Amino acid sequence: MSHPFTAPTAQVRVDHHSAVHLAAETAREVARGCELPGALPDQAAVIASELATNLNKHASDGTLYVQPLPLGHGVEILAADRGPGMQDPERCLADGYTTTGTLGVGLGAVSRMATHFTLRSAEGPEPGTWVCARLAPPGERRPEWQGVGSVCLPAEGEEECGDARAIVDTDSGRTAVVLDGLGHGRLAAEAAQAALRTFHAEPDRPLPEVLARMNQALRHTRGAAVGLLRLHPDRADYCGIGNIRALALSPGGVSHRLTGQPGVVGWGMPTPRVHGFPLPRGATAVLHSDGVDARWALDPPPFVLRLPPPLLSAALAHGHRRVRDDATVLAARSPLRLP
């Protein structure tokens, strides 16, 4: 059976109250696709409805992103907007607090219903609020799975996404991949999915071997750009072909910026090389396709550097996406322990 995370992220733009119902139905459908038991799909719908209602009432340019969990079994609902931000986020989570005369139970109810809940907000020249609510069965709540986030979006007007991504934990480390099939649409998606199947077959092999196997698998496709990242407790290894960027973020700034070697996986790929860089505890490694404007990393606001991986992925995809191209962000921290 294919991994449910292979599908692109479902997105619902909240620009009218009617989007609240669509958000709820989208979350319920994704949760059912993840085969969540019992009342969990309905709970996912309630969470999405509350977050969408909050965006409709208080935010500008708000969007909900819904997808299976990057690691584990469950559903993730992300909310992102462009302001005005929350002056006191903790107070906004308290039942009874409201600025619009309602009952004031939305965010508080979401935080109690979700298995994991994270909220950050920023005011000032680049305002915004980002929320991550995850819902998982009791046996799928390992804390090391929280240090991962991703958003994968098709180009506007396209039904299929030419990007793909995945992340797995094995004895070799935490290994992530971002793939960008050449162009967009169906043929790009076929190339990306072929590479993704190869990755899932043996993700713990040395990174150059994984790329070599992808190169073989993609010979009769359009080909793809591929970025592979392996995270260890204190460092990361990057191996890439094409325009997939890798970066390391910490509260002090962006410490490393890497781009794959020139070439196309599936078409005369050069011999891949591995580049290692330190990744101290608490630092975040980021992979993203060229559907995300790379200029975000030139001088990111301090609050962006401090966002946890799920919210960082949402913030970059929401704020720096090129809508005419497929866009993928994957952010991850090194796990403290592996299986």
TrEMBL record:
<dbReference type="InterPro" id="IPR036457">
    <property type="entry name" value="PPM-type-like_dom_sf"/>
</dbReference>
<dbReference type="Pfam" id="PF13581">
    <property type="entry name" value="HATPase_c_2"/>
</dbReference>
<dbReference type="InterPro" id="IPR039248">
    <property type="entry name" value="Ptase_RsbX"/>
</dbReference>
<dbReference type="InterPro" id="IPR036890">
    <property type="entry name" value="HATPase_C_sf"/>
</dbReference>
<feature type="domain" description="PPM-type phosphatase">
    <location>
        <begin position="146"/>
        <end position="334"/>
    </location>
</feature>
<dbReference type="InterPro" id="IPR003594">
    <property type="entry name" value="HATPase_dom"/>
</dbReference>
<dbReference type="Pfam" id="PF07228">
    <property type="entry name" value="SpoIIE"/>
</dbReference>
<dbReference type="InterPro" id="IPR001932">
    <property type="entry name" value="PPM-type_phosphatase-like_dom"/>
</dbReference>
<protein>
    <submittedName>
        <fullName>Anti-sigma regulatory factor (Ser/Thr protein kinase)</fullName>
    </submittedName>
</protein>
